[in-house]
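pasting for ref
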Amino acid sequence: MSTSSSLHELTAAELADLLARKEVSAREALDAVYARVEEVEEDLHSFVLLTRETAERQAAEVDEARAKGEPLPPLAGVPIALKDIYCTKGIPTTCCSRILEGFVPPYDADVIERCRAHRLVFVGKTNMDEFAMGSSTENSAFGPTRNPWDLDRVPGGSSGGSAAAVAASETVLAMGTDTGGSIRQPASLCGVVGLKPTYGRVSRYGVIAYASSLDQVGPITKDVRDCALLLGALAGHDPRDSTSLPDPPPNYTRALTGEIKGLRVGLVKEFMEYQGVGVAPEVAEAVKAAIARFEELGAVCREVSLPHLNYSIPVYYILAPAEASSNLARYDGVQYGYRSADADGIIEMYRNTRNEGFGAEVKRRIMLGTYTLSAGYYDAYYLKAAQVRTLIRRDFDAAFEDCDVLVGPVSPTVAFRLGEKADDPVQMYLSDVCTIPVNLGGLPGMSIPCGFSPDGLPIGLQLVGPPLAEETLLRAAHAFEQSGQFHRRRAVPVRQRKGRRSAVVREG
């Protein structure tokens, strides 16, 4: 049995078992997590808000219910970190942007309601790229998050705070959002598991929008079983989201059989080489080794080609900014959030509020989107991009006629250094070259650890399935995971910078 001081190191399944058998309490688990936060958060800056008052109340309620013998959900009492993009009733939500300064939502997002119903305990709100626009969590108004495997490197983005928190055991579970790879890429760079469900599988109600036809909520966890457990808690129909799928979610943990004999696996040629530029050698080697492992487990592997994938980056950076331009028009300083104090008249107030409230990357994407939607350019850019998006989706459909799962790298490189790509937006955008096509297709995709670079940095393997094939992905991922030890390695952040303080604040 684990001591209370090491409870933060357990998986959710392991902790839930101890809680159910009353060997530990929810409060003990929470205290262990917060002790870990106090130990490493100064160096990582995974959180922008710690909700300790809320968490202690939730843990106490779970312990009281368990003492009375009340039936509880499987994950009751397990600590979870929430990306700062979900509306949380009575708890500030900023999207890590000045423009939402002081905003306290009057309602919960659907996924937050589901977390409350499953009696999960809210550790805090995690750092992210502003409005989920970024691949490194360097675009946050509260400063960057650092990768727990190497504090000089990025954790990926935009869900970098959630991935770093899980990797460093500052939480047991976490949630992110994925518009172009924002769950999978940080999961890969931080050596944890992340899953983007089929578009519509999880409700977007109450999730602050970036690009509505691409955004999706999903789990970030220590292993595949935890991923299945948390996905089961989050998935389901929501009538408040017009894109929510009516299909009832299955019990995802039943898919974790360990048996993949005969599974048809396709290595996507274009994932390994984009426009003639290949992935880093250590990443390519780890992916090829993963393919060999799948063959050893009984899968049938082959190379496949998706010829229109090379258009994914330009298509995405037309469609996503266009939707962002529309979605972010509501932030004008009138009803809520930040308002410029230096303005002479309402038009100047609008202009100054948006100029002062939005960061550079958000303004860049708003301008890109406004341009592509403007008169004379809509047909040339937006409409054409939408048509090519259809071609990309058809490539996936054709590949899935002969394959059950498609695989490739998540990121073309391991975690890069802080500031390395900050002045080159195009190079930053290329960090998501392998993940963006999955969002354009509305498909489920996940990242699982598949190796380490010579420098000891994690490498992730991406698995992609047809719509609503999360069970197949989880089955394949679990079989691969259990055949090795990659998922058992944990980051140990080393304090390197004396005197530096993070911007994390406490509730209340």
